Amino acid sequence: MGDLLFLAHRVPFPPDRGDKIRSFHLLRHLAAHRRVHLAAFADELRDMDRPELAAFTASQTIVRRSKSQPMAALQALVSRRPLSLTAFDDAAMRRSVEDVLARENVDTIFVFSGQMAQYLPVAPRQRVIMDFVDMDSAKFAAYAEAAKGPMRWIYAREARLLKAFERAVAERADASLFVSEAEAALFRRETGAARVHAIENGIDTASFDPSAPFERVPEGGALIVFTGQMDYRPNVEAVTWFAEDILPRIRGACPQARFAIVGRDPTDAVKALAGASVIVTGEVADVRGWLAAAAIVVAPLKLARGVQNKVLEAMAMARPVVASTAAAEGIDHDGTIAVGATSAEMAEAVRLLLSDPRKATALGDAARARVIARYGWDARLAQLDALIGLPLVLGEAA
């Protein structure tokens, strides 16, 4: 059995944001079975050297990604390619991938995220496992529907070109993976692709455990917490909606309620939300302290794809969760989180839980039990072993 080349659009460590959590656990799982070579981009200088990954890799190639958005946009227009691809198009990465494939006995290429599929050989001799995670073209199509003026055209163009690219990649891949069956079904329906599989996200329930050792944050009574990467558009839209439309409804009945936005790189729009009833923390060393201090954890995402790690983490920490319909859609929660579709429904769900601590505690305990039973990483990734061991041409999608 040959080696495996793992391509990732971000260094899969530390596992402290949604995409890096999934890529890290995939890498760790694959490394238990195969000799793995990693090729990944670094967004920050500190990611150029991650010695922790040596335990899972036979070799590492880390390329600093420094291309500006204007340059990537210009290249996208000139080449008639999606901006999502030109932003990650890098000659050094291309040479590195070619070098690994020429030097090592690689029989499987695992591609994490659509941006990295451009580095596949034109006619791969290796088995190709493509983890799209989400259908990115559908995300841009949703952006286009909500946008006006030039941005509507830009998003529609990105959706159209990216969808064609995703379809072409799926035709070449031996398996295409998505984070939920709903996302996989959407991809099959929109592209006609076969060999499409759902491999859901999991959660480390030993680490995300309210009794685990971590630095505590002083509890603030009626503290409502949101966690996430705060320069990511869906997260920005979510906290803006909550702070401006939902929180005032809650504070009408519960004046002491405060909203904490916990996550790195808050945009100016997010920072502007800070005030007497809204806390913007920026990057924190350990999100578990804030989750443990929360009376309620919310996930008011208007646009969400697949399984939301932020929701699984809150459930594992035995916190009562109130999620939007979109945020809850990919999670098999079996009624252990509260779900609302509108500002009024979200506010009422939070208000009811704040007014009944015993009910809130019971819901949080049920959520943790559900996560342990349903979302352990070993159980979620077990089916990956069969895909990696399959012959080069897989059967039809299940």
Automatic annotation (TrEMBL):
User: Could you tell me which InterPro entries the record lists for this protein?
Assistant: Sugar_tfrase_PEP-CTERM_Stp1
TM ranges: none
Record protein name field? TIGR03087 family PEP-CTERM/XrtA system glycosyltransferase
* Gene Ontology MF terms in the entry: glycosyltransferase activity
Q: Which UniProt keywords apply?
A: Transferase
Give the species. Answer: Sphingomonas gei
Q: Which Pfam families match?
A: Glyco_trans_1_4
Say which domain of life the source belongs to. Answer: Bacteria
SUPFAM superfamilies, per the entry: UDP-Glycosyltransferase/glycogen phosphorylase (SSF53756)
PANTHER family, per the entry: GLYCOSYL TRANSFERASE GROUP 1, GLYCOSYLTRANSFERASE
